[in-house]
């Protein structure tokens, strides 16, 4: 029965409503755009998306006050961890992999099984790696664990062998069953950091572990999309859409309820909002212009760079507007905050802007 309580932590009625909306949207895309039977893209996408969502879940769930109650139950930690992995895998399969599989429904059965098993390995290995660091083992042990997972996942993505994948899953099960240590992550955001900034939001952002992970994952996904053989009027909007999605950055005010209270009472709250706008501009100017420069050197003119600059200003201002007037109130763990449907508003506008811009050929 423990898994039912974990399901209540990870699922919500709003999540199912949004899943239904996403399913309709994916079916519409599947109907309008012919499926490219690209098994490699399906496998890489499933692995990367699972990796991002799993770390997002682990870094928020295991430092919440809720986790202390589970450790007080008369059950072993291992039993709790196994049921948690099962629920996390089911959640990922229902909310993310099912949509990818629908998009690539023409793929062979083996090409659909591999992403599912790959997601299971990613969830298990990520959980074990986070537990290694959470248990404060020596640096050599942590480095070896990280190196093993990186090499194993790289070998699988290169060889695409189901037997190798099953062997790696079995190894992960052995590691998980052998270790009964507590997993409780410290609040890294409250610790001192070697980087100091005058901007309040930049200082908080560099202390958020998931921001680095999300940024690296976004860059990897951008690289995967860039090398796909897709029409340019689809590829370029997708690249900027992926770049636009970085929830630890775009929900900084929502993540601090006490700050929101102070902002309503401070006579010069605009100073903080200006800081947040600059923080957004630092990130989006860098990543958007990085994508734009690649296309300027290949096929587009300098005018494309001007359009990107104009939209970056609008994008940052829109995120500021959402955080100021439509901040996210009801959330228990940061995963709920980072997964709120509001995160898709600006990326959808990003896609539409660049899609229309390319159709009109304004550069």
Q: Look at the helices and sheets and give the structural class.
A: mainly alpha
Largest sheet: none
Distance between the termini: 59 Å
Instruction: Write down the overall mean pLDDT.
Output: 79
Order of helices and strands: HHHHHHHHHHHHHHHHH
Low-confidence stretches: 188-194
Radius of gyration: 21 Å
Count of discrete structural domains: 2
- What percent of the residues sit in helical stretches (DSSP H or I)? over 70%
Shape: globular
Number of strands: 0
Strand content of the residues, in percent?
Answer: under 5%
Helix count, per DSSP?
A: 17
How would you summarize the topology of this molecule?
Layout: H1 2-10, H2 13-32, H3 39-61, H4 66-71, H5 77-103, H6 109-134, H7 139-159, H8 162-178, H9 200-205, H10 209-226, H11 232-244, H12 247-250, H13 257-265, H14 270-296, H15 302-325, H16 334-338, H17 345-360
Helix pairs in contact: 1-5, 2-5, 3-5, 3-6, 3-10, 5-6, 6-7, 6-8, 10-11, 11-14, 11-17, 14-15
